[in-house]
What we know:
Blueprint: H1 12-32, E1 39-40, E2 43-44, H2 49-62, H3 77-80, H4 90-102, H5 107-132, H6 137-149, H7 151-156, H8 163-182, H9 187-202, H10 211-226, H11 229-233, H12 236-245, H13 247-257, H14 263-267, H15 276-292, H16 302-327, H17 333-356, H18 369-384, H19 389-401
Antiparallel strand pairs: 1-2
Amino acid sequence: xxxxxxxxxxxxxxxxxxxxxxxxxxxxxxxxxxxxxxxxxxxxxxxxxxxxxxxxxxxxxxxxxxxxxxxxxxxxxxxxxxxxxxxxxxxxxxxxxxxxxxxxxxxxxxxxxxxxxxxxxxxxxxxxxxxxxxxxxxxxxxxxxxxxxxxxxxxxxxxxxxxxxxxxxxxxxxxxxxxxxxxxxxxxxxxxxxxxxxxxxxxxxxxxxxxxxxxxxxxxxxxxxxxxxxxxxxxxxxxxxxxxxxxxxxxxxxxxxxxxxxxxxxxxxxxxxxxxxxxxxxxxxxxxxxxxxxxxxxxxxxxxxxxxxxxxxxxxxxxxxxxxxxxxxxxxxxxxxxxxxxxxxxxxxxxxxxxxxxxxxxxxxxxxxxxxxxxxxxxxxxxxxxxxxxxxxxxxxxxxxxxxxxxxxx
Length: 410
């Protein structure tokens, strides 16, 4: 436990109340959010949810993976709901038995339930990750509450899509990579776990490829620190598992679509490349906007702009708090470096996607959820100190909750 946590207030009751409210909110989203791009109860449905559900229905009906022939920009794509077939298969395979059990009519809610469970498990894994990083109980609770109340996480883990499972695996991968720099376990056992997790991630969503360069960098660091080539060749084990387990799916994509990632068939032809500065500016503004609030049906108005700018304005201060945290060199610094690498890899991936297609959403950063949750909460709690920890809790809770105010203007 960090020494600065001594004398910190007991946050158990606040944690239980807020977490209960967050789970109740997620259950409400699961039941009340309309299927598809419609608005009901001030909530906007996810426009590509029917396409995700149709993927599962196809699996149940044909016991085979569908082949995508149309991308979402083509006329009638949303009506057909056939533009998510390029996605990796794990989430859809997990949802298929539940859809087969309840039937086609209730298929959206069966798929939502799988995502909902993955969302709750993500909160458990996040708490354990923060414990790995030597955060005291109060800080771990705050990190979990922050993510539990965050609209983007609550929304996408209450609806049918492969995001929820990919974020769960991303958190587990983050914990595994942090463990690589904090423990001296068996290299073979570590390599097997890492390889299986990377393969599971790539069979859930190709965006989790961002963990591959981070893992390789950590193996290089091990080799340089120990001055042993064997530490670097140990990376061959997880990479081999990835190739054996996930490789066939990406080879299938290459054969069917001419690309391992199949992003061209998923997003359509790349946009004509704009100049770099406007592309990055659009990527930044879209990422920040939709990171805090994923729905798009709220009309532009002065109060809405104030709420949106509030979320953007606080981020530089949180970045500064993170830098100050690193300067203090706490016991979790080594793990913090891993979190930075993961976040940086996610940022580069989003920038590359924005450069090619321009369709950017805040959820594209969420594979780095462990890094985001840590750096948005823990440095603030450290700087506040035990004497002002309750105030930090109030601030961070308000920060997570504030985007929900946009629904008042829907």
